[in-house]
Amino acid sequence: MPLIEVHLIENVFTADQKRQMITKLTDAMVAIEGENMRGVTWVKVSETASGEWGIGGQPMTTEAVKALAAGRKAA
Predict the structure, then answer these.
(1) Residue 3, Cα to own-chain centre: how many angstroms?
(2) What's the rounded Cα separation, in Å, for the pair 50 and 25?
(3) Rounded distance, CA 75 to CA 68, Å?
(4) Are 68 and 27 in contact (CB under 8 A)?
(5) Which of 19, 2, 7, 11 is nearest to 53 (CA)?
(6) How far apart are CA 57 and CA 59, in angstroms?
(7) Other CB atoms within 10 Å distance of the CB of residue 22
(8) Cβ contacts of 75 within 8 Å, gap of 6 or more
(9) Which letter, b or e, does each residue of 24-57 get, where b requires 16 or more Cβ atoms within 10 Å of its Cβ?
(10) Residue 48: which of 5, 14, 7, 20 has the closest Cα?
(11) DSSP label of 56
């Protein structure tokens, strides 16, 4: 049974967006492996505290991710 792990910085996505991720990732796997596997396809969403995720040697914050998503340069 497949396990899909999604790692996010906390407070970037709403609860509804995370539910959508779970649904759509499950749908994507079922499209590949078949409908009979839906009930055993796991999706795990884990959140990391703002500033505790580094990219390019710099801590990434919730605010920086939201700025990037809005098309602004991250601070």
Answers:
(1) 14
(2) 24
(3) 9
(4) no
(5) 7
(6) 7
(7) 17
(8) 63, 64, 67
(9) ebbeebbeeeeeeeeeebebeeebeebeebeeee
(10) 7
(11) T
Q: What is the mean pLDDT of the chain?
A: 94
| Residue 9: closest CA among 70, 71, 64 | 64
How far is it, in rounded angstroms, from Cα 12 to Cα 5? 17
9: its two tokens: 């910085």
Model confidence over 41-63: pLDDT tens digits?
A: 999 999 999 999 998 998 999 99
pTM of the model: 0.86
